[in-house]
C-alpha cells in the first residue's frame, strides 16, 4: 500500500496506479480529454496536470501517467496548476476552436479565444487520438491513424484510402468526444 | 432460476454521469430480493483501483458471474475481462448493462424513475447470467496433410511453402508434371511467360518434394468434416469413391481465359489473340515471327477496367519477351487512356532502350482497324493518329471460374458475386470475436489479378495454415464461439446447412439420410440464425442461447410498466446507433427497454411470441440495413421473415399487426434511431395495452405454441431467402403465392394450438369447442378429424351424437 495526499486528503493506492486513477476513485475530479477507461493512458492533451511535491521540490506533471509514490503531496487545484491548465486550454481552443468539448472546457475555466492567430483549423477534431487507440486496442484492427504532421496533422486511414480492414463497427464514432469522427468514419468505411 | 451461481453486481457512478441521473441507491433497494452474492456502487470500476476491488470481491465472495452496470459493453468489456482474468473470470462470465447510454444519458425522467428502468435491465442481465453453462474450450488437433483443391497456380506455391516448413500437403491438379503446368500457364495468366523460369523453380521443388503428393484432379463427390478433420470424396473413373483426409483446405481457383473476339476484325493469321501469341512464344520458333510491327491493342472495355489493366500488363510483358528473343519484331502497346499502366520509371527507360512503343488512345472514340493500320484518337491532342501494324494482337476473353468451382461451391462457404467473381463468406468482425481464418481461398477466381499477386496469396494461405498448426501445438487452437447440436433433438433435416452463410454446419455424405449434424466452430461466426431456424430447436449457441434471452426478456417484462415497450437492437447498427444517441446528447422516451442481441437473425421467433404472451404492449427491432450492412450477410433478412410471421399471427388473433415493427439503421445514424423509437412509441401510445382477459391470453398462448411448432419453423426456415433471389421454394411461383402458403400453414397450426389450449382445460365436443374458440364449427371440424387421425388428440367418448375430444395419445 502506498499512502500519499491529494489536496491534503490522505489517500492510498497500490504500486502501478496513477494519480488520476486514485484521485477519481476518491471522488476528486481532474479534467481530461485524451483519457478513457478502456484505453491505456496516452498523455497527449496534458489537461490532467497536477502539482506534485515529493518533499524536495514541486513539479507540474500529467496525472494520467504519473505513478503514485509514498509520501508525495498532490495538488489538483493550486494556482500553478490552474495557470498551466488555462494555458493548455487556451492553446487547445486556438487549435480547435470548433470543438464543442473544448468550448465547454474553455467556458468552465473562463478561457476566451486569444491573440494567437488561428491557423485555419475549423474542424471539430482536436487530435486526442482516442479513435486511433480504440481502433487498435479495443477493436484489434488498425484502420485509423494520424496523417501528416504539425499544423496539418489529421485523423485518417493509411494512404487516405477507404479501408478494407474497417469493420464498420462504429467504435471510433462512439468514443469520439467531439463528433468529428462522423465524417472521417464515412470516408474510411468507404 | 439457477441459484447456485454467485453473481456480483458492480454499479458505476462514472464520475456523476450515471449517479446524477439514476438513483443508484434505489437500484440497490429494488434489487434486494434478487439472488446476488455481492452488490456495490463504485466511482469508476474500470480504473485500476476499481478492478482491484472487483478482483478482491471475486476472491473473498467466490463470485463466478460478474455484472457491471456502467457503459458500453463493446468498448469496455475487454478492460474488465483483462482485469479479471487473473482471478479466473472468463469472457463469457462478464455481462455489461449499459446504464449510461441506454438510461442515464438519453432520458429526461426523474432519477427514481430511471432507477426502476435500470433495475429492470439489470434483473434481465442477472436472469441471463444465471443460465450460463460453464464450459472448458478444447483445443483442436491439427494433424495430417493440407488439401489443396481447385488446381490453381497459387496451390503450388502454398504446397512449396508448407513443405519447406515440414508440413505435408495433397495437391490436386490437372497437370502432373512441371512442364505441363508451364505449358498451360497462359490460359490462366496470359503475359506471364517472362516469369516462367521462377515458376519452373517453384514447380520443380513441388514435384520433387516428398511432402507434396500431387494427385490427378478428380471430380469431387463430397467434402465433409471440418477444420482439423476434412474428408474429401473423389470420384474414381470406375465409379467408386476414394476418400482423402486432411486438416485444412486451401482452395486455389483461377479464372481461365478464352479466345479473344477477333472475328469482327478479320485479317486471317495476321490478327491473333494473346493466348495464340503465347503458344507461339512457348514453341520459340523463329519462323513464326516475321519481321515487322506487332501492335498489342487492348480493347474489349466490356470486361471492365481491371481486365484491361491486366491485358495491358500482359502485352507489356510479352513485348519484353519479344524484344529479348525475337528482336526482328517491333512491339507497340496501344492501351486505353482511362486505365493506369502500372509501369515504373525504370520500365519506361527499358521500353525506350528496347524500342517498345507505348501509346494510349482516347477510349471515347473506338479505334478503327484498317488493313495495315489502326486509327485512334490520341488523348494528348484530340487528333486522329494511325499506327502501322503487321501483326495485330488483342487480349483473350476472361471466362467464368473453372468448372471445378461449381463442385466446390456446393460444399464450401464460397459464393458467386455479381460479375462472376467468387468470394469467401466474408463476415466482418472484431478479430477476437471469430476464430482464426481456417479456410483459405486463393487465385484469380476471387478477383482479377496477375501471377505475382496470386503467388503472394498462395504464400499467405500457407502462412495461415502454419499459424493454425503452431496454435494447435501450443494447445491454443480454440474457437471463441461454440455451437452445439443436440443429437437427440436433431432430425437431420439439413435446413441449418442450407441457411448458414459461414459454413459452420458440417455437410454429410450424400445419400446418408437424415443424420444429426455436426458443427464446425472454427468456421462459425456465432450469428445464430441456424439456432433461430432449427425446426426442432436442437441448435444452441453456447452461452448465447434462446433460453438465456427468454429468461432475460421475462425478467425485464416482470419489472416493466403497462405502457412500456421492448426494443431488440442488433449488436452493430442498432446497438451502436443507440449508444451514439447518448454520445450526441439526443433523448427519447424512457418507455423503451433495449435488449441487445449480436444479430437480429439470432432472435428466435418464439421470443417474440413469448414477450407478447407475457403482456408486452409492443416490440421494436432495430437492425442493420439489409444487404450491404448486415455483418452476418442475411441475418436481418431472416429476422424479417420471423417478424412477418409474428405479424400474421397477431392479425389471426385479431390483434394489431403494428404492435411489432422492424427498422433499419446504420452505426452512425443515431438521429434515425431516435426517430424510429419515437415513431413506434407514438403508434403504441395510440393503442390500448394488450387485453388481459382469458380469451386473449388463450390466443397469445396459441401464438406462442405455434412459434414452437416444428412445421411452422420448417416452413419459416425454407422461406428465408437471400435478397434478390427470384426463385421461391417448392411449387410457389411468386411472392404472393409464397406468402399465402406461409399464411395457410400459420392458420392451420394456430387453429391446432387453440384446440390444444381448449382441450387442455377440459374434454369438449365440437360445438362447445367452437363456442370457446369463437369460430364456426365447420372451420374446426376438418382439423379435429386430422388431429384424431394422427393420434394427437383422442376421442374420449360420445355425447348426443358428438364425439368428445380430449388431449392424450391414442
Low-confidence stretches of chain A: none
Structural class of chain B: alpha/beta
Biggest sheet of chain B: strands side by side, in what order? 7-6-5-11-24
Number of helices in the DSSP assignment of chain A: 6
Secondary-structure arrangement, i.e. CATH architecture of the largest domain in chain A = Roll
Radius of gyration of chain B: 33 Å
Shape of chain B: elongated
How many DSSP helices of chain B?
25
Distance between the termini of chain A: 51 Å
Compute the CA-based radius of gyration of chain A.
18 Å
Helix content of chain A: 25-40%
Pair with the most extensive interface?
A: A-B, 33 and 31 residues
The total of beta strands of chain B comes to: 32
**Helix percentage of chain B:** 25-40%
For the residues shown, what is the average pLDDT of chain B?
Answer: 89
Structure report:
The complex is a heterodimer of chains A (190) and B (810). By secondary structure, chain A is an alpha+beta fold. Chain A is 30% helix and 15% strand. Chain A has 6 helices and 7 strands; from the N terminus they run ββαβββαααββαα. Chain A has a 5-stranded mixed sheet, with helices on both faces. A two-stranded antiparallel ribbon of chain A has the order 6-7. Chain B is of the alpha/beta class and 810 residues long. In chain B, helix 17 (573-583) packs across helix 20. The two termini of chain B are 35 Å apart. The model of chain B has no long low-confidence stretch (mean pLDDT 89).
Amino acid at each position: 500500500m502506498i499512502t500519499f495526499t491529494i489536496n491534503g486528503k490522505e489517500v492510498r493506492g497500490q504500486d502501478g496506479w496513477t494519480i488520476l486513477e486514485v484521485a477519481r476513485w476518491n471522488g476528486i475530479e481532474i479534467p481530461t480529454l485524451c483519457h478513457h477507461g478502456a484505453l491505456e493512458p496516452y498523455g497527449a492533451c496534458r489537461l490532467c496536470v497536477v502539482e506534485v511535491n515529493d518533499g524536495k521540490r514541486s513539479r507540474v506533471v500529467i496525472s494520467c501517467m504519473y505513478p503514485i509514490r509514498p509520501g508525495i503531496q498532490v495538488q489538483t487545484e493550486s494556482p500553478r496548476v490552474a495557470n498551466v491548465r488555462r494555458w493548455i486550454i487556451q492553446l487547445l481552443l486556438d487549435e480547435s476552436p470548433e470543438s464543442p468539448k473544448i468550448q465547454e472546457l474553455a467556458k468552465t475555466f473562463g478561457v476566451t479565444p486569444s491573440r494567437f492567430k488561428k491557423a485555419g483549423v475549423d474542424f471539430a477534431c482536436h487530435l486526442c487520438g482516442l479513435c486511433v487507440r480504440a481502433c487498435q486496442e479495443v477493436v484489434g484492427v488498425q484502420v485509423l491513424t494520424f496523417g501528416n504532421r504539425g499544423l496539418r496533422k489529421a485523423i485518417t486511414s493509411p494512404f487516405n484510402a477507404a479501408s478494407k480492414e474497417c469493420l464498420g463497427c462504429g467504435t471510433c464514432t462512439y468514443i469520439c468526444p467531439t463528433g468529428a469522427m462522423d465524417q472521417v468514419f464515412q470516408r474510411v468505411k468507404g | 432460476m439457477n441459484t447456485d451461481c454467485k453473481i456480483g453486481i458492480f454499479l458505476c457512478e462514472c464520475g456523476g454521469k450515471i449517479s446524477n441521473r439514476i438513483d443508484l441507491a434505489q437500484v440497490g433497494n429494488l434489487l434486494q430480493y434478487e439472488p446476488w452474492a455481492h452488490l456495490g456502487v463504485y466511482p469508476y470500476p474500470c480504473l485500476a483501483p476499481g478492478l482491484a476491488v472487483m478482483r478482491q470481491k471475486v476472491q473473498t465472495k467466490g463470485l463466478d458471474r460478474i455484472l457491471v452496470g456502467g457503459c458500453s459493453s463493446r468498448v469496455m468489456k475487454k478492460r474488465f475481462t483483462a482485469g479479471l482474468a487473473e482471478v479466473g473470470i472468463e469472457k463469457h462470465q462478464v455481462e455489461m448493462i449499459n446504464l449510461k447510454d441506454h438510461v442515464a444519458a438519453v432520458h429526461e425522467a426523474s432519477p427514481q424513475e430511471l432507477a426502476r428502468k435500470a433495475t429492470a435491465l439489470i434483473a434481465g442481465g442477472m436472469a441471463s447470467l444465471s443460465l450460463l453453462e460453464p464450459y472448458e474450450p478444447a483445443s483442436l488437433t491439427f494433424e495430417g496433410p493440407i488439401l489443396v483443391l481447385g488446381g490453381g497456380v497459387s496451390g503450388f506455391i502454398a504446397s512449396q511453402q508448407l513443405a519447406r516448413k515440414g508440413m505435408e500437403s495433397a495437391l490436386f491438379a490437372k497437370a502432373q508434371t512441371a512442364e505441363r503446368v508451364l505449358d498451360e500457364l497462359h490460359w490462366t495468366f496470359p503475359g506471364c511467360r517472362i516469369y516462367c523460369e521462377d515458376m519452373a523453380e517453384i514447380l520443380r521443388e513441388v514435384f520433387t518434394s516428398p511432402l507434396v503428393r500431387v494427385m490427378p484432379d478428380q471430380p469431387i463427390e463430397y467434402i465433409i468434416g471440418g477444420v482439423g478433420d476434412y474428408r474429401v470424396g473423389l470420384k474414381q473413373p470406375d465409379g467408386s469413391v476414394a476418400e482423402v483426409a486432411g486438416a485444412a483446405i486451401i482452395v486455389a481457383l483461377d479464372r481461365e481465359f478464352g479466345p479473344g473476339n477477333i472475328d469482327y476484325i478479320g485479317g486471317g493469321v495476321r490478327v491473333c489473340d494473346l493466348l495464340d501469341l503465347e503458344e507461339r512464344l512457348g514453341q520459340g520458333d523463329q519462323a513464326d515471327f516475321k519481321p515487322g510491327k506487332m501492335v498489342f491493342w487492348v480493347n474489349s472495355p466490356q470486361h471492365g477496367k481491371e481486365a484491361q489493366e491486366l491485358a495491358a500488363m500482359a502485352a507489356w510483358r510479352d513485348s519484353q519477351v519479344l524484344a529479348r528473343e525475337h528482336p526482328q519484331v517491333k512491339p507497340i502497346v496501344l492501351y486505353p487512356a482511362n486505365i493506369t499502366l502500372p509501369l515504373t520509371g525504370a520500365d519506361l527507360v527499358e521500353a525506350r532502350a528496347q524500342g517498345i512503343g507505348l501509346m494510349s488512345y482516347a477510349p471515347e472514340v473506338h479505334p478503327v482497324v484498317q488493313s495495315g493500320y489502326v486509327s485512334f484518337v490520341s488523348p494528348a491532342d484530340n487528333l486522329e493518329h494511325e499506327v502501322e501494324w503487321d501483326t495485330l494482337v488483342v487480349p483473350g476473353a476472361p471466362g467464368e471460374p473453372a468448372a471445378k468451382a461449381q463442385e466446390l461451391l456446393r460444399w464450401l462457404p464460397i459464393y458467386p458475386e455479381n460479375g462472376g467473381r467468387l468470394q469467401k463468406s466474408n463476415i466482418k468482425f472484431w478479430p477476437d470475436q471469430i476464430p482464426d481464418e481456417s479456410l483459405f481461398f486463393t487465385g484469380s477466381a476471387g478477383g482479377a489479378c496477375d501471377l505475382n499477386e496470386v503467388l503472394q496469396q498462395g504464400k499467405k494461405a500457407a502462412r495461415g495454415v502454419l499459424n493454425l498448426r503452431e496454435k494447435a501445438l501450443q494447445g491454443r487452437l480454440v474457437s471463441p464461439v461454440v455451437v452445439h447440436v443436440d443429437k437427440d433433438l436433431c432430425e437431420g433435416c439439413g435446413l441449418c446447412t442450407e441457411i448458414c452463410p459461414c459454413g459452420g454446419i458440417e455437410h454429410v455424405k450424400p445419400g446418408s439420410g437424415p443424420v444429426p449434424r455436426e458443427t464446425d466452430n472454427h468456421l462459425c461466426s456465432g450469428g445464430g440464425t441456424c439456432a433461430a431456424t432449427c425446426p426442432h430447436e436442437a441448435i444452441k449457441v453456447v452461452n448465447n442461447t434462446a433460453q438465456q434471452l427468454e429468461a432475460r426478456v421475462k425478467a425485464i417484462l416482470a419489472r416493466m410498466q403497462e405502457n412500456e415497450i421492448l426494443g431488440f437492437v442488433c449488436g452493430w447498427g442498432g446497438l451502436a446507433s443507440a449508444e451514439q444517441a447518448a454520445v450526441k446528447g439526443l433523448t427519447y422516451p424512457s418507455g423503451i427497454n433495449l435488449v441487445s442481441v449480436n444479430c437480429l437473425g439470432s432472435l428466435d421467433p418464439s421470443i417474440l411470441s413469448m414477450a407478447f404472451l407475457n403482456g408486452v404492449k409492443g416490440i421494436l427491432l432495430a437492425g442493420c440495413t439489409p444487404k450491404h450492412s448486415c455483418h452476418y450477410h442475411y441475418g436481418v433478412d431472416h429476422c424479417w421473415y420471423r417478424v412477418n410471421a409474428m405479424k400474421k399471427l397477431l392479425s389471426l388473433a385479431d390483434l394489431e399487426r403494428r404492435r411489432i415493427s422492424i427498422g433499419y439503421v446504420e452505426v452512425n445514424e443515431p438521429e434515425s434511431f431516435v426517430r424510429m423509437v419515437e415513431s413506434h412509441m407514438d403508434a403504441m401510445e395510440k393503442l390500448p395495452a394488450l387485453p388481459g382477459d382469458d380469451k386473449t391470453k388463450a390466443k397469445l398462448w396459441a401464438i406462442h405454441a405455434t412459434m414452437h411448432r416444428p412445421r411452422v419453423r420448417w416452413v419459416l426456415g425454407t422461406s428465408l431467402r437471400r435478397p434478390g433471389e427470384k426463385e421461391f421454394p417448392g411449387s410457389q411461383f411468386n411472392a404472393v403465392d409464397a406468402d399465402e402458403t406461409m399464411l395457410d400453414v400459420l392458420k392451420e397450426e394456430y387453429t391446432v394450438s387453440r384446440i390444444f389450449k381448449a382441450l387442455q382445460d377440459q374434454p369438449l365436443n365440437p360445438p362447445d369447442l367452437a363456442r370457446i374458440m369463437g369460430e364456426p364449427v365447420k372451420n374446426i371440424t376438418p382439423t379435429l378429424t386430422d388431429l384424431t387421425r394422427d393420434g394427437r388428440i383422442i376421442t374420449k367418448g360420445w355425447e348426443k351424437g358428438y364425439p368428445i375430444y380430449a388431449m392424450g395419445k391414442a
